[in-house]
Amino acid sequence: MEGTADAIAQAYRDLAHGATLIFAVSVHQCEEIANRIQGAVVVTGNTKNRKAIIDDFTAGKIPCIVNCMVFTEGTDIPRVETVIVARPTQSEALYAQMVGRGLRLYPGKEKLLLIDCVGITGRKSLCTAPSLLGIDMENVPARKQDEIEGDLFELPIKIASASDTPESWIKNIQIVDLWAQEQQYQTHDVNWFKMPDGSMVCSLLNRQKLTIPCPDSLGMVNMADGSRIGMQEAFDRAYLKLKNIYPQQAYIWDLNAVRSWGKRPASDKQMKIIQHRCKGFDATGLTKMQASQILNRIMNGGKAS
């Protein structure tokens, strides 16, 4: 508990600006945090003089309030400029309420600073600032998670960039498979690579490739030839083209074939390219299939780091 309180207090000192509201997980944590922040006041369910505290906070006499399940709903403190979330929650509604305490307008206040001290934990059940916006953090590797900070509505762009890494590329087959199952698409076991923009690419020899643009909200695709078709029809057309025009390259585009040779260790040539292009990524133990997924993305414009 002490280490957590120290870290939260340090985050306050290093990052917070203006009137700050901290949400803690327990009364004890409230007290531990407040003891480490000069001028901070604890507010819990047992606090009797809440109005006086809020008045002093609004007047600038109190720089920071540390509370436990008090100011989550029905409280109007417009002066709040920084919200520090120091407690986990699985509830999007509760998370939105905590963030909402800092979204009131106030003279001289330009924006809310949100500091999530729980946030990126790898536990899918937790609600965080990204998940509040419907953003999936699952594919952001640990080494890139420190990059996920900034204005709340800039997070989708930053997370998309941080997710576009070798760690996620080697999981591409599973990602596509799960996505296709959810959407009830039949991909015909074609080795599609799902790009960050939602388009699908099947890489072939000599830098040739088949591309299906990202479907719109209705599941329709605007093809390069000007036609507008459903995503399933796009998969069907691509499969027929691969079978009829590229049967000799089935070992590349047919997942059944890829799985048969892909279990072997990555080749020296694959490893050399990956180590050169993917600085900071540990390529130890890669299989041929995993290496091919990384090279797929690199050859289609991926900038690994």
What does it look like?
The protein has 305 residues and is α/β, with parallel strands linked by helices. The chain has two domains: 2-118, Rossmann fold (3-Layer(aba) Sandwich), CATH 3.40.50; 166-299, no CATH class. It has 13 helices and ten strands. The protein has helices at residues 2-15, 27-34, 50-58, 92-100, 129-132, 155-163, 166-169, 172-183, 231-245, 250-253, 255-261, 268-277, 288-299; strands at 20-23, 41-43, 64-67, 82-85, 113-116, 193-194, 200-203, 209-212, 220-222, 228-230. Strands 2-3-1-4-5 form a five-stranded parallel sheet, with helices on both faces. A three-stranded antiparallel sheet has the order 6-7-8, sandwiched between helices. Strand 6 and strand 7 (200-203) form a beta hairpin. The two termini are 35 Å apart. 30% of the residues are buried. Mean pLDDT is 83; it is low at 120-126.
List the helices and strands and how they pair.
Layout: H1 2-15, E1 20-23, H2 27-34, E2 41-43, H3 50-58, E3 64-67, E4 82-85, H4 92-100, E5 113-116, H5 129-132, H6 155-163, H7 166-169, H8 172-183, E6 193-194, E7 200-203, E8 209-212, E9 220-222, E10 228-230, H9 231-245, H10 250-253, H11 255-261, H12 268-277, H13 288-299
Parallel strand pairs: 1-3, 1-4, 2-3, 4-5
Antiparallel strand pairs: 6-7, 7-8, 9-10
Compose a concise summary of this entry:
The protein is α/β, with parallel strands linked by helices and 305 residues long.
Which range does the strand content fall in? Answer: 5-15%
Overall 3D shape: elongated
Q: For the largest beta sheet, what order do the strands appear in spatially?
A: 2-3-1-4-5
* Average pLDDT rating: 83
Q: How many domain units?
A: 2
pLDDT under 50 segments (min length 5)? 120-126
Helix content: 25-40%
